## 1
Amino acid sequence: MTTEKVDVLVIGAGPSGTVAASIINKAGYSVKIVEKLKFPRFVIGESLLPRCMDALTEAGFIDAISEKGFQQKSGAKFVKQGKICDFTFAEQYTPGWQWTWQVTRADFDHTLAQTVEKMGVPVEYETTVTGIVFNGSDSVTTVEDIHGNKKQIEARFIVDGSGYGRVIPKLFNLEKESVLQPRKALFAHTNDVRRSMADEPNRITAVVHDKGVWIWIIPFSTGITSVGFVGDHTFHDKFSGTQEEMFRAMLASEPYTAERFKDVELIFEPRKLEAWSATTDKFYGEGFVLTGNVTEFLDPIFSSGVTLATVSAQTAAKLVIRKLQGENIDWEKEYMEPTMQGVNVFRSYVMAWYEGTLDTIFFSKNPDPVVKAQICSVLAGYVWDQSNPYVELHATELKRLARKIELTEKLGSLS
Ligand code: FAD
């Protein structure tokens, strides 16, 4: 078996792997990415958040992405039985990016991988990590290509950005169950011929359907729109037939999607994903760090996935560089805590969404503009700004606000 040597081995060429690889490579270390699939490859996660633009900028990816002409996104809209709550990122509380993109991930991820290759990081496609042996922080990783050829890669450090592959947690039994209830999604890309300017292609729309069920509508610049139904099994079990039959029946089951997507052409057979929430006890160990989805993936509702993936990769990459320079890193304090801060804030919002707390807030009769701007910052991904009470007190403040709104509206209806 042949053996190669690099400073840093990155597993996975998704957003987290490529961001980490680019930043470490820029610091002068040799980096290699191994990627199980051939790119472009399909992956879901098409609506980005403004906060990820900071990480994409530091990785040097913004120009290459801009050239692709993806749909710009400047807000997020929530719709429930004719009521609308519209967030515009330009009106957010935390200073920062006020827009981002809605992307077809096959093209987006391919662009990141090609850009990092141009920067000098080799990406070895159709190459799967099958085993890792650590010797202190040094490691020997066994990889196998699609022809069954095996080789070893010696590295001083590993960044695991393998997403749903969860390579290191699976190899070393670090898997832990998420506290979130398992949910399913059925989704497709549609030829959105009835899209009008009123449907605002520059934002994601989340339509509240049944209790605990919602629909994402993510328009792309090509006229294609991604549509997905998310709910627990009781909703999905109501539909039968092929995936296409179920998807069309779901579209017909909600008045807005029934009209806009009636008989719409589907670009691919609808796909199903389920039970995606997962986590691990620790996001680091001697000789490795986990980034992106491998750390914790929550739920699609607030489009947090790519932002947490790129921001965790950005943080991890800088720590890896300092570690390679000989510094002693306090991974718990400098990596685990800030990463969990982002995850915990989004988890509170995901729970508040499914419990109905955010329904009360989003569709209240007289929203307070200051509070709306603060919540808007969370929806833009600025979940590390402790000066924002809806970040700092995320676990309690949403419930308190919802109770206040309920009381005010009740008193208003009595007077
Ligand atoms: P990935 O993008 O999954 O990349 C990991 C790469 O690692 C893959 O290319 C994979 O092939 C490779 N790999 C895996 N195993 C191995 C191995 N053994 N060896 C080598 N390579 C390997 N996020 C958003 O930001 N916005 C959204 O609108 C959104 N919608 C979503 C909807 C649903 C239904 C779900 C389930 C998720 C959604 N997400 C969304 C989350 C998003 O998909 C992920 O958070 C994001 O892709 C994570 O990026 P990553 O780089 O960590 O992993």
Note: The longest helix spans residues 331-355.
## 2
Amino acid sequence: SCQPQLDDPHEEKSGLINMTKIAQGGRKLRKNWGPAWVVLTGNSLVFYRERPPQSAPSQGWAPAGSRPESSVDLRGAALANGRHLSSRRNVLHIRTVPGHEFLLQSDEEPELRAWHRALRAVIERLDRE
Ligand code: I3S
């Protein structure tokens, strides 16, 4: 479809992963690595400070009663290996159109690869719309 999907909240993937924001609107930020509960939807990446309680009833993908720390639109975003941006292993670099940049990292390579694949699929689908 040529209609931009402004609201596509279905969950593609979620999980606990190490994250730091490294730029906001093109301005470099000081790294602040920490675990985040990350939810990938049909058009955005949403960051929560912690995993929602397992007992919490969910409202679709959104953990009930929790507010996201931040959320970015993935349309037009760029994905790259983040090895040149960190001494950590298995780092993925995400840059959004407005210049917000994040690193995702896991000591488990398959976990990071799964995030890479899922993010690439969403971004490619948004490119085709
Ligand atoms: O990209 P950098 O500056 O080498 O990142 C490291 C620093 O942010 C460091 O913090 P301070 O310089 O604020 O003390 C962090 O503790 C490191 O984790 C950062 O590097 P890694 O390689 O972990 O992404």
Note: Confidence is low (pLDDT under 50) at residues 1-6.
